Structures are given as C-alpha cells and as structure tokens.
Amino acid sequence: MEQQSYLRIQQDPTFQELVAKRQRFAWALSAMMLGLYLAFILLIAFDPGWLGTPLSEGSTITRGIPVGVGLILSSFVLTGVYVFRANGEFDELNQKILKGVKK
After folding, report:
1. What are phi and psi of 54, to 5 degrees?
2. Which residues, at least 6 apart from 74, have a Cβ–Cβ distance to it below 8 Å?
3. pLDDT at 1 over 60
4. How many CB atoms lie within 10 A of CB 11?
5. What is the domain extent for residue 64?
6. Counted domains in the chain
7. Full DSSP string of 28-95
8. With CB atoms 3.0 to 4.6 Å apart as the test, which of 14, 53, 70, 86 could cross-link to 90 if both were Cys?
9. What is the chain's Cα-based Rg?
10. pLDDT band of 34, cuts 50, 70, 90
11. What is the pLDDT of residues 72-98, one digit of tens each?
12. Angle at which helices 91-102 and 2-11 pack, to 10 degrees?
C-alpha cells in the first residue's frame, strides 16, 4: 500500500512542480552565495590593500571586517529568504499533494 502511495506522489504533477520550483530556487540562492564568496576571494587576491585600509584615520578596523561580516550576514539573509518561501509556497504545494494522496 505504501509503495503505491509513493508512486502516486511521484507521478503527481503538483509534486513535480514542487520539486522543480524548489530545486531552481535552491540553485539560484546557492549561485548568489557562491558569487558573493567568489567576489570576496577575488578581492582578497587582486586588491588586498583595499581590504586592509582602515575605515578612518587612526582606526584599527579595516574595510575587510565589515565586508566579511556582510558576507556572513548575507548567508543568514538568504537562508531566511529560503525559509520564508518554504513555509509559504512550498508548504502549500505539500499540503495540496497530501490531500490528493489521502483521497
């Protein structure tokens, strides 16, 4: 009985839509994060002096610190964006799929 339910779910167009949307969204967010990290690494490689420049005269805090913190915070923001969409659109599709299986 369970095997039949799994097959019905896999063949459900709503399930296939959910998988495709979730996969595209996850890849897009992953590409954004990878792009940010790549830009940071390239900045370190090709212009380390810019990152090492103090924010103001006499300051021990360099430009690299807020840039690095921003990079870390961007990962939290992108995770929040994923969770927001997962709890909204993706959960609605999940519920629709489950209702179809229970029939």
Report:
1. -60, 150
2. 33, 36
3. no
4. 9
5. 2-102
6. 1
7. HHHHHHHHHHHHHHHHHHH-HHHHHSBSSTT-S-BTHHHHHHHHHHHHHHHHHHHHHHIIIIIHHHHH
8. 86
9. 22
10. very high
11. 999 999 999 999 999 999 999 989 888
12. 130
